Amino acid sequence: MAKEQAKRVIINAPVRKKLSAVNQEDLLLFTRQLHTLLNSGINLLYALETLANQVDKESMHKVIQAVYGRIKSGFSLSKALMEHPTVFNQIYVGLVRTGEAYGDLPQALDNLEYFIEREVNIKKKIGQASTYPVFALMVCIFFAFFTFKFILPHFVAFFQDLNVELPLPTRLMIFVTKTLDKPVVLILMGITTIALIIFLKRFASTENGRKYFDRLKTEIPYFGPIVKKIAVARLANSMSALLEGGIEIRKALELAGKASGNYVFEYSMKQASENLREGLSLTKFFATQVSLFGGIFPSMVRVGEESGELPSIFKKISSMFETDVENTLNSISVIIEPMLIMFTGTIIGFIIIAVFLPLYSLLQKLG
After folding, report:
1. DSSP, residue by residue, 13-74
2. Beta strands in 233-291 (DSSP E)
3. What is the DSSP string of 224-280?
4. Are 259 and 94 in contact (CB under 8 A)?
5. Is it the case that residue 160 has pLDDT exceeding 70?
6. Dihedral sign for Cα atoms in the order 159, 160, 161, 164
7. Per-residue three-class SS string for 310-361
8. Tens-digit pLDDT profile for residues 270-325
9. Is the dihedral of CA 72, 73, 76, 77 positive or negative?
């Protein structure tokens, strides 16, 4: 019966038309469907064949086909997944491997489904919260550029013909307007901007660059605490999934550190693993990391250690910090909006002063 249902899925499979990178939402859908099929009693090979035929993204189709081919040639699922590290990270592979060892792959996939779903939710919240500030900032920049490039040049010619001493704001306005009116300057500005972006991206991809920028992210006023909360939410979510999946706690700490997406937290979790090896409890270690994790984190970990329920405690920590992140992100507009208003108001005020001061001087002379 289960195989008949799978056949119907293949027959009704949509035409694949998308060729783009596999994202976390694709991975979540794959994990959820594979979990459902295996729970229905379908064997792994037939489940993968079914998913390969029904997926509508070409890149994901190719990955599933490659995994299917490896398993058919004798590889385990975890070893087949390891050949696609950009799609299946160490946490994913580790939980699948543990599920294979315990003979309970559906449960491992269930843990992964919960883990990825939380990750997707966090990313969506970040994206939704950053859309308005980015859009508003782009509008402000475009307004400033358009004004200096296309509107103020008409005033510049007029002011230069006046026989009055131009005030400093007007002279600055004329300088900026004339500068932006030169094609060479615009080309140089574009080249410099592109070169700077390329340099920063390359530097950020190096180990030293990643250390520098990740540390900087945690120290930026207002936004640093948000970065920390997001990292802790991801870290706790990873710890919950890994410990529930049967991963040894020291290994779980190191993998969760990488999943946090921030070098500062990754290094801290490596230290936690080392301290645990030397006999120091997690509670004592995290009590020394309050500036990163906050005061409630070590308190909850202590409860988990004393009760032997660390996986469920980390799940609660993850939920709590996710809610905190959502509330904080929702309040970002309260911080950003006044800054954008000040930025726009400063430009408008500067233009008004630069335009009307010489006119006022001229009127005084005529009077």
Report:
1. PPPP-B-----HHHHHHHHHHHHHHHHTT--HHHHHHHHHHH--BHHHHHHHHHHHHHHHTT
2. none
3. HHHHHHHHHHHHHHHHHHHHHTT--HHHHHHHHHHHTT-HHHHHHHHHHHHHHHTT-
4. no
5. no
6. positive
7. HHHHHHHHHHHHHHHHHHHHHCHHHHHHHHHHHHHHHHHHHHHHHHHHHHHH
8. 999 999 888 888 889 998 999 899 888 999 999 998 888 998 999 899 889 888 88
9. negative
Is the pLDDT at 145 greater than 90? The verdict is: no
Structural fold of domain 130-181+220-367:
Receptor-associated Protein (1.20.81)
Residues in a beta bridge with 18: 57
Amino acid letter, residue 306: E
The reply to whether 130-181+220-367 shares the fold of 2-88 is yes
Q: What is the pTM of this model?
A: 0.73
Rounded CA-CA distance 22/72 in Å is 23
pLDDT of res. 270: 93
The superfamily CATH assigns to domain 2-88 is: Type II secretion system (T2SS), domain F (1.20.81.30)
- The overall average pLDDT reported for the chain is 83
Coil vs helix vs strand at 174: helix
How many alpha carbons lie under 13 Å from residue 133 in its C-beta half-sphere? 16
Residue extents of the structural domains in the chain? 2-88, 130-181+220-367
CA 333 and chain centroid, separation: 18
Q: Of the ranges 88-102, 146-160, 271-285, 335-349, which one carries the lowest mean pLDDT score?
A: 146-160
**Residue 18 pLDDT:** 45
Phi/psi region, residue 291 (left: phi>0; alpha: psi -120 to 50; beta: rest), is alpha
Given pLDDT bands bounded at 50, 70 and 90, which one contains residue 199? very high
- d(Cα 204, Cα 211) in Å, to the nearest integer? 8
**Cα–Cα distance between 89 and 87 in angstroms, integer?**
6
